[in-house]
């Protein structure tokens, strides 16, 4: 019985933390934020040298063959540093879709290239969670027609994984005829999402697609977003505590006022148990299939709520400075906001959790 | 991450199960949890001690089972007793607070005299700490003990003394050195509740029941030998005790039982023929609580792992009292809300649900948020010890 990160996992997390401290400091984040839909190639190359794109990919395909808990603690670090890395789509959701639903030939063709950091993969699954603006993709005779919104890691993708309205997953190349693309600009300038419009676009189906495979890809995405919020929230608390320890008013540091200390305590009290929930939800994706879907819902919805509370409270502890662009605290605020809305907001995800337990029709 | 206990512990689990299967029928029906245990509860406790399922790590010389401390074994025992719905070892303030204190700081004579009968449920203790003027600032306590010959003479008042009306004995903090700084003038005394000059008055709370008492001391004479630790060291003796306070670890299993009862309630209660669980707003609140409960449950597993390795889990431990009490209260609050008007029924009213336990719980659990270190004190602890934030500057006297 050991509910903890292993020594290897702590080392992995430390090495990613060090890498990001050196290579993704706030001034780099600011520069990247000015070019949201331009991939930070040198940063991704550095991450690739560490094996990050291929974390989940089996060693046979050039990856590291690690588990979702490993991926979650890495994304936690990426969230901690609000790092502009196309991790969620390229390193988690797309490879998982290929591993679950792809043919051997497809896996052999794409997985090694993803693992090596040579290509980027976007993921279009939002319509499986909820349809807006008549979006949705129909598959017919090897082509796709329709549109998909909030495509994850949309920018500069070399490959898109697209879910149709029938539990089918498809590979689409960005230069395919009939495909048009529009960037969507969000509050979070550290990650790219966009729209794909399909007009009889040639697509290659993943032959082992199923409702279950689509659901598992979404579950993994949700747990990762929860982990991102965990890391971003942790950093916001640390920044709030540090700021409260320096800023003086009425002749003393504001961190000595209980009104301020208690805000910090409330943030920590909410976030710390969430860490264990994220760990377990990620662990369950690999090891406890019966719990995986429910725990992905719980992790996503709970971290969304805790994240919102931490994001606003940490900003308040910073007072007026938190509201300005000077400290850049808003990058964390926005990152957490983005995590909440994508792949199902908390109310929607809780409804799914209720259905799963027979509590709702 | 490995959630399996492994063969050694699974074998131990089988032993516990075999014991339960064999002896289940001897278990007492009711739980005499806080007050005086019934004779059946006492003999059950003796059976548990003989088999190592109570007082497991207390040395044999003092009436325990004498096993080496192993937090995972303790956890398995708790899990199996809970799964079998069989009352586990007695839990009261004597066993959880006084016994560890005596074992750590008591004289050999004190240990020999008090530990065994306390473990067996034959001697019931109450805790004399809080006073009307000394709650969060416990070290400011004013109950006085002056020396007269071979005795201390005690005058003053304690409050929030649960089980005082049942107790044989009290472990009590008194001020013996009024001229010393507040933390250095306190002594820890143990004495009989039958000592002349002690008056116990029940303290009725908002629940309508007297879950606590006030205890008044008028010229109560206690031999000087009945001190634990040195004179003036009582604060430190008590702090050695406080770390054993069980409530601080939270009890995810109990919360889970309560949550399941809430789910059942929401399936049964209807308004206009619609079940509460089919109301999307109530249902959303339910799932939200379930996620928080899951977080606390896994936080508990994390604490267990830390404890088994002898590591301090830091924040993960410091937040437990604050978060658990709040979550428990929120579970009761939702139960009351789904009942609508029925949520205010109480006492022996017609239409009362679950014997009024949700209403009682909703009120009593507010008491738990305040007692044992208020939510605000918890936040001070979390921010100061967990986050390293500065203390409130002391006001000049």
UniProtKB/TrEMBL annotation, chain A:
Domain Acyl-CoA dehydrogenase/oxidase C-terminal: 215-347
Cofactor names: FAD
Keyword Secreted recorded: no
Record bears the keyword Flavoprotein: yes
Pfam families: Acyl-CoA_dh_1, Acyl-CoA_dh_N
CDD domains: ACAD (cd00567)
SUPFAM superfamilies, sorted: Acyl-CoA dehydrogenase C-terminal domain-like, Acyl-CoA dehydrogenase NM domain-like
Residues passing through the membrane, by range: none
Gene3D superfamilies referenced in this protein's UniProt entry, alphabetically: Acyl-CoA dehydrogenase/oxidase, N-terminal domain, Butyryl-CoA Dehydrogenase, subunit A, domain 2, Butyryl-CoA Dehydrogenase, subunit A, domain 3
GO MF assignments: acyl-CoA dehydrogenase activity; flavin adenine dinucleotide binding
Keywords linked to the UniProt accession: FAD, Flavoprotein, Oxidoreductase
The Acyl-CoA dehydrogenase/oxidase N-terminal domain, residue ranges: 6-118
Top-rank taxon: Bacteria
Protein family per UniProt: Belongs to the acyl-CoA dehydrogenase family.
Protein name: Acyl-CoA dehydrogenase
Species name: Parvibaculum sedimenti
Phylogenetic classification of the source organism: Bacteria, Pseudomonadati, Pseudomonadota, Alphaproteobacteria, Hyphomicrobiales
UniProtKB/TrEMBL annotation, chain B:
UniProtKB keywords: FAD, Flavoprotein, Oxidoreductase
Molecular function in Gene Ontology: flavin adenine dinucleotide binding; oxidoreductase activity, acting on the CH-CH group of donors
Cofactor(s) in the UniProt record: FAD
A Pfam family per the record: Acyl-CoA_dh_1
A single GO cellular-component term on record: plasma membrane
Keyword set includes Oxidoreductase: yes
Acyl-CoA dehydrogenase/oxidase N-terminal domain ranges (all copies): 9-122
Matching SUPFAM superfamilies: Acyl-CoA dehydrogenase C-terminal domain-like, Acyl-CoA dehydrogenase NM domain-like
Domain of life: Bacteria
Family the entry assigns: Belongs to the acyl-CoA dehydrogenase family.
Name of the protein this chain belongs to: Acyl-CoA dehydrogenase
């Amino acid at each position: 019985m050991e509910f903890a990160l292993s020594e290897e996992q702590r080392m992995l997390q430390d090495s990613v933390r060090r890498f990001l401290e050196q290579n993704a400091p706030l001034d780099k984040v600011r520069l990247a934020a000015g070019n949201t839909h331009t991939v930070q190639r040198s940063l991704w190359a550095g991450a690739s040298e560490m094996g990050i794109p291929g974390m989940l990919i089996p060693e046979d395909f050039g990856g590291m063959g690690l588990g979702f808990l490993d991926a979650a603690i890495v994304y936690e670090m990426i969230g901690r540093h609000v790092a502009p890395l196309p991790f969620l789509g390229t390193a988690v959701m797309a490879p998982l879709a290929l591993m679950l639903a792809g043919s051997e030939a497809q896996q052999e063709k794409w997985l090694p290239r993803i693992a090596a950091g040579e290509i980027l993969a976007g993921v279009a699954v939002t319509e499986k969670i909820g349809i807006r603006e008549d979006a949705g993709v129909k598959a017919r005779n090897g082509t796709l027609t329709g549109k998909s919104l909030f495509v994850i890691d949309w920018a500069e993708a070399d490959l898109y994984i697209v879910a149709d309205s029938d539990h089918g997953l498809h590979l689409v190349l960005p230069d395919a005829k009939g495909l048009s693309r529009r960037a969507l600009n969000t509050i979070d300038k550290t990650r790219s999402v966009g729209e794909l419009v399909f007009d009889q676009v040639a697509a290659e189906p993943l032959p082992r697609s199923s409702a279950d495979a689509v659901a598992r890809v979404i579950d993994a995405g949700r747990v990762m977003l929860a982990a991102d919020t965990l890391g971003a929230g942790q950093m916001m608390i640390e920044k709030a505590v540090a700021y409260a320890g320096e800023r003086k008013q009425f002749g003393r540091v504001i961190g000595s006022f209980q009104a301020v200390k208690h805000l910090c305590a409330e943030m920590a009290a909410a976030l710390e148990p969430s860490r264990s929930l994220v760990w377990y939800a990620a662990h369950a994706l690999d090891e406890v299939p019966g719990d995986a879907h429910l725990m992905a819902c719980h992790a996503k919805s709970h971290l969304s709520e805790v994240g919102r509370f931490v994001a606003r409270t940490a900003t308040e502890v910073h007072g007026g400075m938190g509201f300005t662009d000077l400290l850049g605290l808003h990058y964390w605020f926005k990152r957490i906001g983005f995590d909440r809305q994508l792949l199902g907001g908390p109310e929607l995800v809780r409804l799914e959790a209720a259905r799963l337990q027979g509590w709702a029709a | 991450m490995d959630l399996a206990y492994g063969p050694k512990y699974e074998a131990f689990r089988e032993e516990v199960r075999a014991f339960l299967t064999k002896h289940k029928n001897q278990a007492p029906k009711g739980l005499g949890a806080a007050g005086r245990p019934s004779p059946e509860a006492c003999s059950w406790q003796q059976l548990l001690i003989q088999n190592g399922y109570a007082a497991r790590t207390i040395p044999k010389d003092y009436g325990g089972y004498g096993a080496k401390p192993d937090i995972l074994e303790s956890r398995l025992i708790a899990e199996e007793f809970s799964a079998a719905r069989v009352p586990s070892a007695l839990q009261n303030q004597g066993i959880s607070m006084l016994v560890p204190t005596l074992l750590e700081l008591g004289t050999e004579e004190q240990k020999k005299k008090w530990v065994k009968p306390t473990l067996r449920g034959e001697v019931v203790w109450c805790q004399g700490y809080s006073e009307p003027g000394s709650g969060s600032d416990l070290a400011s306590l004013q109950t006085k003990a002056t020396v007269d010959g071979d005795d201390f003479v005690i005058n003053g008042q304690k409050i929030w003394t649960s089980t005082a009306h049942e107790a044989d004995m009290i472990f009590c903090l008194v001020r013996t050195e009024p001229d010393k700084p507040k933390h250095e003038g306190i002594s820890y005394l143990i004495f009989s509740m039958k000592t002349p000059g002690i008056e116990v008055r029940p303290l009725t709370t908002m629940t309508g029941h007297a879950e606590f008492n006030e205890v008044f001391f008028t010229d109560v004479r206690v031999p000087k030998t009945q001190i634990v630790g040195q004179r003036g060291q009582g604060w430190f003796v008590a702090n050695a005790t406080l770390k054993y306070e069980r409530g601080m670890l939270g009890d995810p299993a109990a919360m889970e039982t309560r949550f399941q009862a809430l789910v059942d309630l929401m399936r049964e209660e209807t308004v206009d023929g619609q079940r509460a669980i089919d109301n999307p707003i109530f249902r959303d609140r339910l799932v939200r609580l379930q996620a928080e409960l899951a977080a606390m449950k896994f936080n508990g597993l994390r604490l267990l792992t830390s404890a088994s390795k002898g590591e301090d889990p830091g924040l993960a431990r410091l937040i437990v009292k604050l978060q658990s009490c709040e979550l428990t209260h929120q579970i009761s609050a939702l139960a009351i809300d789904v009942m609508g008007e029925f949520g205010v029924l109480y006492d022996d009213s017609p239409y009362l649900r679950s014997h009024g336990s949700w209403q009682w719980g909703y009120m009593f659990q507010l008491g738990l948020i305040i007692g044992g270190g208020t939510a605000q004190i918890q936040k001070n602890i979390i921010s100061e010890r967990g986050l390293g934030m500065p203390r409130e500057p002391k006001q000049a006297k």
